[in-house]
Amino acid sequence: MNSNDYLVLLKSRIEAYFDIKDISMPSIKFDLVGEFNSTESKYFFVPSINLYSIAHDEYLFAACFEKEISVATFTDYCNFMKTEMNKLTPKKDHMNSNFVLVLICNHLQKKDLITLIQQTKYHKDYAFTLKGWSDLGLILVDLEQKQIYTNKFAEKMRNNFDFFTN
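^ thats the sequence. predicted structure below, dont judge the formating
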């Protein structure tokens, strides 16, 4: 499986739930960007008597690399994700927003990159969590070894990105 095949599988899996976006920047390239918004409400007898609403958002950014991913490149992508998290202005009913960065590579040799991804954590509170929070999930897909490496936050979504066992 090459990176294009993996990207097609990923897109087919998420397009029913995510709005696929086209984002182009001069320094950072993403092959797939998706946004998912969900709102849950509880009301009393009729919808006009709303007791509460909760909004969950998820943002997925995927990039493919034909060559080895350097630590500097990973840092650039990670800094971009942190900037996006800091730009988020929570809506009235915002509870949480998950930002997921998926890096897909055909060949991976650097074990220090795996360690760096596994140790990277980023959590942002909005108004001391009164307006919600955001977390950063990092997923590294090694197509040659058929391995997926994640940080602690993305560990629970690992199976959603594992196309090797099917």
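The chain has one domain: 3-38+54-161.
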